[in-house]
Amino acid sequence: MEDLLTQTKFDLLRTRLKETELPLSETAKQRGQSLLQHSDFPTRKNEAWKYTNVNGLNKLLLDGSSSNSSQPNSISNGAERLHILNGCISNQADVPGIKTSWNSLPELSTEEPFDALNLLYCTCAVELTFDDTENKTIELIFENNCNSVISPRLFIKCKKGATGTVILNFQGSERNASFINVSTYIDVEENANLSIHKIQKNGAETFDLQREYVNQAANSRFTINTFPLSGRMTRNDLFINVNGNNCETFMNGAYTLKGKSHCDNHTTVDHKVAHCYSKELYKGVIDDRATNVFNGKVFVRKDAQKINAFQSNANILLSETGTVNSKPELEIYADDVKCSHGSTTGQLDEEAVFYLRTRGLSEKSAKELLVKAFLGEVLEEVDNLEVRYYVEKQIELHFSA
Amino acid sequence: MDKSKDMIEIKNLHANIEGKEILKGLTLTVNAGEVHAIMGPNGAGKSTLASILAGREEYEITEGEVTFEGADLLDLSTEERAHLGLFLAFQYPVEIPGVSNVNFLRTAINEIREAKEEKPISAKEFMAMVREKSKIVELDSKLASRSVNEGFSGGEKKRNEIFQMAMLNPKLAVLDETDSGLDIDALRIVAKGVNTLKSAENASIVITHYQRLLDYIVPDFVHVLYDGRIVKTGSKELALELEEKGYDWIKEEIQVG
User: Fold this and answer.
1) Sign of the torsion formed by the C-alpha atoms of A370, A372, A377 and A380
2) Is the separation of the CB atoms in A285 and A371 below 8 Å?
3) Which chain B residues are within 8 Å of A354, Cβ to Cβ?
């Protein structure tokens, strides 16, 4: 009975959201609703959300009225582009490989309440398909300039033997206070090679919750580079199932936090079968009162022999008041594997700062140079130079602001 | 003494670190065009002097003053001192992974130029300078563009210090035990670099424990630093005397005096 009487935080949030106009099957709708009715916002008692509090979602006003585009930055020159303004597709072009109109959205396939919320209040759904070896680049530009709900549902399919690159370019106006809630389903088929670059340059008051559900088939290669650069709160959940043999998986992340920003990267790689390689490198700098959470989990299942899995997280605190909670986790059930993980959190090398200052660099530019060098290790992993230069520039702007 | 030639004037300098007094009234004047050697036993305060001149913040100055080209040096930040033309060659140069030697030098040169309200150095001019100056210390141009001191041998690190000095063209260079950890060949190259850069407009303070370096860098004055003060000043022959007799006779002389 209690269930019915108590208003949950999800109930409260939902009163302010607009139901999706996209076609949903009755079963999808019911499943989503029932999942949300039996859930509430995660609390500290929930291990996966121990350090991340989403209660602030209910304080967002979300009262923005539609607004015109103000010429967003695109990253890639040669890419097919889709412009999504405040959650809605604004250049409805029919391009092969980009599907934006639907007869019915796919059913809900997770038990995750925020995924259900994404579906029921979906503002746009996009399916990207790569089916040849051309290595086409598709850039989705999410321009957010009014305080609204942005709830895209993305499906990325890299077909057998195909190669593709996706840039997810989130950019919010400076003080933007939106609620971004993205679900992305990714299929990397046999012998396929998919790279995703995700840039989260959100407005200072924006909450951004994103989930990627990845399935990798045999002999495939998957790379995801994540750059949470600004925003009030950013939470990324990355789930990668490595279902086939001889796969390669690369996860890189670089983050720059200041002010009251909170950033939480949760990653899970599940090595279900043998002979695979995964490598994860997340690095970031934390200033002011910002907080960062990293949780990286690697499973190596019982019969998944000959796995090489490497994971590393490194943080630099630029202030006395910043916080880092870093938790690397390995769960290994096979006996012939090579896995390592590591996590470090420290300050900038004061001796190096002094050395640079004796050469005439101001304290600020000395620190900036050292921070860039620290994050540079991640950026060197980014083979797409347009993305790399864009992110480098954003990091520079972060420090000059 | 012609006052206009005064480059740096250190007067009655007293300094503490963690409550322990290291410098106890050090006085020294260096003029343009001069090379001064400071020698002394371990713990005399040699590296402390270098650190204080460069602006290391751990030290507390309790008394005295330092005037550099008319400016109150102790009032300036480390980088402001560099902008005015002060350079410290480190006893232990720092390794900085990921920061390229030439990139940071270009930033340094431009910040110094900006402080002087000069326009930034062009890429072409800069690269020509790198080529020219790296030759002085026989530093491989590949090393010049690698990460600062990362994976350099002891000799390469010290040569890199002198390379940076050549690039920044300071008025006053303080060389803190630049000879430590160097073999004879490296020592000769480093000394040659320092000698090549010597001019009537600049000066150097060479801090060393051994006389060896002074065979290659010939000083105009040799000072003995003992227990936080300059206790004896002489010509380059004083260094030879110290090498022969050690520091004990100085200690005795002071106690007698």
Assistant:
1) negative
2) yes
3) 54, 56, 78, 94
Residue of A nearest to B116 (CA): A360
> Which residue among B78, B97, B168 places its CB closest to the CB of A357?
B78
B225 lies in a domain?
yes
Residue type, A129: T
Q: Chain A within 8 Å of B85 (Cβ-Cβ)?
A: no
Total beta-carbon pairs less than 8 A apart between chain A and chain B: 73
Residue burial A269-298, b: 16+ Cβ < 10 Å; e: rest: bbbbbbbbbbbbbbbbbbbebbbbbbbbbb
Question: Is position B134 within any domain?
Answer: no
What's the start-to-end Cα distance of chain A, in Å? 53
Residue that is written with structure tokens 């790198």 in the block: B130
Question: Which residues from chain B sit within 8 angstroms of residue A356, using beta carbons?
Answer: 96, 99, 104, 108
Pairing of strands A124-130, A98-99: antiparallel
* Residue B10's CATH number: 3.40.50.300
Averaged pLDDT, A175-188: 97
Alpha carbon B211 to its chain centroid, in Å, reads 16
CB contact under 8 A, B82 and A373: no
More confident residue, A151 or A66: A151
Q: Which two tokens stand for residue B250?
A: 């100085």
CA distance A258 to A262: 9
SS3 at position A274: coil
Residue B69, token pair as written in the block: 């080209």
Intra-chain end-to-end CA distance of chain B, in Å: 27
Contact B111 A352 (CB under 8 A): no
Average pLDDT value for chain B: 93
Indicate whether B116 belongs to any domain. Answer: no
Model pLDDT, residue A4: 56
pLDDT of residue B5: 66
Name the domain count of chain B: 1
Q: Which of B77, B97, B108 sits opposite A359 (nearest CB)?
A: B108
Q: Which residue type sits at A300?
A: V
Interface of B with A in 3-62 (CB under 8 A): 54-56
Average pLDDT over residues A141-170: 97
Measured between alpha carbons, how far is B135 from A309 in angstroms, rounded to an integer? 46
Query: How many alpha carbons fall within 13 Å on the CB side of residue B219?
Result: 27
> Least CB-CB distance to A374: which of B78, B83, B98?
B98
B144 located within any domain: no
B91 interface with A at CB cutoff 8 Å: no
Instruction: Tally Cβ neighbours within 10 Å of residue A92.
Output: 10
**CB-based contacts of B4: which residues, under 8 Å, 6+ apart?**
none
Residues 126-145 of B with CB under 8 A from A: none
B37: part of which helix (H) or strand (E)?
strand B35-39
Residue B1 confidence (pLDDT): 45
CA atoms within 13 A on the CB side of B46: 26
| pTM greater than 0.80 (yes/no) | yes
Q: Quickly list DSSP for A142-155.
A: EEE-SS-EE-EEEE
